[in-house]
Amino acid sequence: MPWRTMDVHEQRVEFVVAAARKSKPFCSLCHEFGISRPTGYLWLRRYQRHGVQGIAEHSRKPLASPGRTDAVLEQRVIAVRQRYPDWGARKLRVVLAREGFELARNTIHRILLRHDLVKQVDQHPAALQRFEREQPNELWQMDFKGPKGWPQPVGPLSVLDDHSRYVILLAANGNTDGQPVREQLEMAFYGCGVPEAMLMDHGTPWWNQQSPSGRTKLSLWLMRQGIRLCWSGIRHPQTQGKVERFHGSLQRALNRRGFPGRHLQAWLDAYRWEHNHVRPHEALHMKTPASVWCPSRRRYDAQPPRWEYPSGAWVLKVDPQGKIEVKGRKWKISKALCGEWVQLVAVDHRVLVYYCATLFREIDLQIQCSTIVEHWIAEPKPSPCVKDV
């Protein structure tokens, strides 16, 4: 299926653009994207009504629950929870079983959720789907390990290949400054090639909490290399499950093998080599990551030329105020893109704004609204709607 190398939301955007422009027969287009015609019409209707956010993954929760737990039993679950407010569903299940009430852990947890008895900080929603790319270098996951058990304010910087679990980079930077991260990534790109996409959280230095678009110099630099940037859900580490699990293994190694002493980077280099070439991985059928991974064919260019948009594309330059002019009106895009060129794709009364290969904003000319597009892998929350003056 053609979209296996891209994120599901991006695939949907490409489909609705092609369908709205009627560039191919609808049946052929659905076959090309590997979906049924009813699904294709559903995506198209949702986009026509709600824009990009309309084609995000929707909840599959049923409208009715005929098998819902009896109200009396539900009240007993609530009473036990109030007696032990710091206990989770597993412990509550044992207490209820002693009283003769046999309930599944998931049933108890759903009851607690319905009655707002689970704090937001304790909620860990499951990922919508298991993300695993089919080929090496289709997606790299990047994150800093927490400082626990590490003698620096920040744990090591890790970059992991999504398909093979091969550790591309493991560096004791000691801080989250953008310049050291860029230097480490440059060395990785020279040695391993450039990935198609990278997945990161909403943290420094690849995300700016003070900027509406969130983009930083580092993230824009990655985009100029033709790398599509993906963002995990806020407070949702499951999206970056592979790099998080790697950090867990790294922490266990620190706990059981002893502190590495002053030679931090040498210890990390040895651990990285062992992880890649010696340690068998169950998800790889006990193969080593190095036996599955191979360098990317995309080579790094330290001085990339101006991004080439498709021939005949609608291209505009972002002014010093971070705006572009569309239909006689100024629209805010991002101050981070001042002086850069963006591509505009018109779909009915909406305009999609791309920087390099990344969708940045969606402009709705009908309701005069400019929407920031942020999330691609985790289920997106409604983006802020900015009315430009």
Please name the defining characteristics of this protein:
389 residues; alpha+beta; Nucleotidyltransferase, domain 5; 4 domains; six-stranded antiparallel beta sheet; five-stranded mixed beta sheet; 13 strands; 33% helix; 16% strand; globular; disordered N terminus; disordered C terminus
Short description:
The protein has helices spanning 8-21, 26-33, 37-50, 71-83, 89-98, 105-114, 178-192, 217-224, 241-257, 264-277, 289-292; strands at 140-144, 157-161, 167-171, 197-200, 228-231, 314-317, 323-326, 329-332, 341-347, 350-355, 358-364, 369-372, 385-386.
Number of strands: 13
Helix vs. strand class: alpha+beta
Q: What Rg, in angstroms, do the CA atoms define? A: 24 Å
Uncertain regions spanning at least 5 consecutive residues: 1-6, 375-389
- Can you name the CATH architecture of the largest domain? 2-Layer Sandwich
Task: Assess the beta-strand content as a share of residues.
Answer: 15-25%
Query: According to CATH, what is the topology of the largest domain?
Result: Nucleotidyltransferase, domain 5
What's the name of the CATH homologous superfamily of the largest domain?
A: Ribonuclease H-like superfamily/Ribonuclease H
User: What does the main sheet amount to?
Assistant: 6 strands, antiparallel
Strand order of the largest sheet: 6-9-10-11-12-13
The DSSP helix count reads: 11
Give the CATH class of the largest domain. Answer: Alpha Beta
How many distinct domains?
A: 4
Distance between the termini: 43 Å
Helix content: 25-40%
Summarize the helix and strand pattern as letters.
HHHHHHEEEHEHEHHHEEEEEEEE
Shape descriptor reads globular
Average the pLDDT over all residues and give the rounded result: 83
